[in-house]
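User: I'm putting together notes for a lab meeting next week and I want to include a structural view of one of the chains we've been expressing. I don't have a solved structure, so I'd like a prediction I can at least talk through. The sequence is below, exactly as it appears in our construct file.
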Amino acid sequence: MGGRVMRRAALAGAVGLMLASAVSAAGPTPTCVDFLKISMLPRVAALGEASVAVRDAAWADANPGNLASAEGSLLTFSHTAWFQDISLEMLAFGTSTGRHALGLALSGLHTEPLAKYSSEDVYEGDFRYFDFLVAATYAMAPAPALRLGVTGKVIYEKIDWDSATGFAADFGTSYALPPRLLRGELSAGLVARNLGTKMGYFEKKYDLPLAGQGGLAYRPFWLPKSVDALVAVDYRATRGSAGAVLVGAEFEVMKTVALRLGSRGRSGGSDATLGLGVKIKNMTLDYAYMDPGQNLGATHRISLGFKTSGILPSPEASQ
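Assistant: Thanks for the context. Below is the predicted structure for the 319-residue chain, given as structure tokens.
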């Protein structure tokens, strides 16, 4: 029994190592459920993940507080084709009155069947690797320039016959300076992610990938009305990984087509990202491309979003 556990632990460790090596540089502290480090939304990924201060990136995955900046309701489905036949899907819904906001997200990572072998190199069948996350968010705008938000998460992971469940929370805030000061909007954001319980596998327990990220975003107002632009710079520190400076830029024409690029710069290399966004009426299609290197192959993300009127009563209606 002990040998079988060790073999399956090694198989699970191989999957985790592939995830960790593509997401960030290896660090001295092992963590679990490393899929929590992956940006699930193409726009965020294309901006080099420099997103905590981008006020209109109104997804809790970027910054829970900025969900209060959403206009009405937004339903988003995203798919990520990761390397080595690993896929990640997310379905997220958020609705805001401009003062209060609620969000719900379901996401999951899964692999194709993986072969397992005994210590004598005898084939013992296939196994699967699953991660599943349920998240609920509340955000508020106590002042026009201030956003606050919290996300509670239930995490489930299954590796062959073993599984683990954990709980975590994210906290986020952002603040925008008056536009007249810099002829544009300068905003600052701060997020703490994955504060929660350890998760156990094969009689061991591991920490969640706790992360802190802060940054600035600037949107100039002096460009022609048909053009919009954004520049964002973040710094992120993650347990078990090297710190990284994240940089992203977006250039949008006629509020219809947006080009994006970014870099998840870090010690030992730089991960360039590219992306494209298209808006047609109340529908948004986003795409992002990233090649993590290390001979793992490129990854592709695509999302489809639908915007509708809010389902929560506005402050005026409540009165």
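A couple of points you could mention at the meeting. The chain has one domain: 2-310. The chain is about 10% helix and 55% strand.

User: Perfect, that's what I needed.
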